[in-house]
Amino acid sequence: MFGFRSILTVFVFSSFLIYGIFLDRLKNEYFDSSSNFILAEVPEITFDYIDRVKSFGRAGGYFHFWATWCGPCEQELPDFVKFINSFNGMVKGNLIASKDDKDKVVRYLKKFKLNDNFNIIHDTDGVLLKAFGSLRVPETLLFNTKNEFIKKFIGPQDWLNPYFYENTKFLLK
C-alpha cells in the first residue's frame, strides 16, 4: 500500500513537473523562434533613453532590469548603485526601467544622484527585457567591453558582498 510519504513524493514531483511545463510554454509564447534565449552579445536595438545614452555602443558593463513597482528591485537598487560606483568609472551600469511609468522612474532615481557611471533607459513595453532574454525583474546581465555575454544574475543580489566586486574584476579581464 502507498504510505503518506509516497503520496507526498508523487505530489511534489508532479508539482515540479507541471511548473516546468508551464515555464517552458511561457518561454515559447514570450520568445519568438528567431529570439535567442541566451544572448551571445548585446542586441542592436533602439530604445527610449532618459539620460546619457542613445545607443549601447561598445560600453559593455551591467544591464540591470528593474521597476519602481517591484519591491525587491527598490530594495536592491541602492546597493547596485554603490557597487557600480565602487569601480570608479571602469564599469558602466545600465539601469533599464521595464514596463514602468517614466515620471515615476525619474522621480525615484533623483534620490540617488547618479553620475556618469550610469545610463538610464526606459523600456516602456518590455522590448529590451525580451531582447535580452529576460522574463522578470530584477535581473542583471554582465557584458564585457566587446559586448560579449559573460554572466546573468537572476533575482535580487547582495551587490555589496565582496564576491561581486572581485568576481567582476576577474570576469572583465
CATH topology of the largest domain: Glutaredoxin
Can you count the helices? 5
**Number of self-contained structural domains:** 2
Quaternary structure type: single chain
| Low-confidence runs of at least 5 consecutive residues | 30-38
Order of helices and strands: HEEHEHEHEEH
User: Nearest-angstrom radius of gyration?
Assistant: 19 Å
Report how far apart the termini are. Answer: 60 Å
Described by strand count, sense and barrel closure, the largest sheet is: 6 strands, mixed
Summarize this structure as a short list of keywords or feature phrases.
5 helices, 173 residues, alpha/beta, Glutaredoxin, 38% helix, six-stranded mixed β-sheet
Give structural notes:
It contains five helices and six strands. It has 173 residues and is of the alpha/beta class. The protein has two domains: 1-30; 37-171, Glutaredoxin. A six-stranded mixed sheet has the order 1-4-3-2-5-6. The radius of gyration is 19 Å and the shape is globular. Residues 30-38 have low confidence and may be disordered.
